Amino acid sequence: MMSARDVQVKRTGSKVTGRILIVDDVATNRIVLKVKLATAHYETVQASDGAEALALAREMRPDLVLLDIELKDMGGIEVCERLKADPQTRDIPVVMITAFHDAARKMEALHAGAEEVFWKPLDEVVLLARLRSLLRARETAAQLGLRDSTYRALGFAEGADRFETPALVGLVAGRVDTALAWKRELQPHLSDRLITLDRHGALADMEPPDVPDVFVVEADLVRPGDGLRLMSELRSRAVTRHSAVCVMLPPEARETAAVALDLGANDLIEADADPAEMAHRIRTQIARKRQSDRLRASVADGLRLAMTDPLTGLHNRRYALPHLARIAERARESGRMFAVMVMDLDRFKSVNDTYGHAAGDAVLVEIAERLKSNLRAVDLLARIGGEEFLVALPDTSLNAAHATAERLRRVVGDAPVALPGGGGNVPVTLSIGLALGDGVGALPVGDLIGLADRALLGSKSEGRNQVTVGRTAA
Question: Where are residues bearing 4-aspartylphosphate located in the sequence (predicted)?
């Protein structure tokens, strides 16, 4: 049995985009997959049988498992079931591969917990797009879960389980009879509410509970690609942004499939798919959406429970430090980098002395809003002192972190803050210290904040309104 120390992992000179465990009892198949994935800058780890795969999955915690259904020591479906039953590996996406075009076998794999099943020979374009989609979804779920675990560690209990009402599924096709046919086929398999919509109905003004939890959208509504454009519009609207979208593919639509996944489709359904498979994929998306909804609600509840600065609405120091420690721990597990910024408003005392503390509070509120609107949802932003803020950027290179810091500096300094009641405009600038955790042998969180803090002092001493990178991050 190989251990993680014995595994030779190929790293490219470019940024690694994820670690994938390849499980196949045929060495040639493993090598072909390894080459395809290395070209896309994935690390690969290989296992030749189910027992080795289970051991490596527990030991190395890959980002995704590519698993052949036919293995010699145990079936790939049994391996998948064991991965999904183990708390240490159940959140790892599993993509299964088989040489046999057997619809019943495919359904068995999906019921075992596989996120997708591909027939051989593999379509490289669609495979890589599917991997990108699954890894993005996993990272988003992990970051939401990270915030939830931070609240738990701070003593905020999880809310009581809520009674789940039937979900709402919107079926969007170019022809009414097509959507009605889907509805008839799905009704014996789903207990959820099914409604048929055209493009205009999907984009109509709606409020919960009338917002579909899942949209099933025909890829080519009227013209080729109409469904993908509709999906992009659904993603851009606040009310439907968190709804899952399954794209119904026409036959032989490999390019459409890849584009749909890269644009944010949660799943793909082939037009000739069995209704039971359609229903399974929809149920899976309903379950994932509800889990995400619960995590977002947990985050929102936590924000209202003494975890925020009452003036700006940002996280406070009590939340920021343990959450930063979790970001650092995740970086150590994944080998990815993260960045920490400590920032301070320049000469803020003179604002309070000249305009009064009410004006100073108005400045802090406005600056907090500017910072928040220029960061990602997964980034951490906290007010940790009077005019001092902390930012943490997960999974970020030094160049990207420096560009973000410069953007934040500009968004604060480029426009003065208007004081309430016509009290005039106050010019404000921001000094920033930046430090990078490399994920492997990184500084302890306290030392990393100290490094960013010293870099901040360097920005102040060099004239303010600038970004300085901590020495070990350069």
Answer: 68
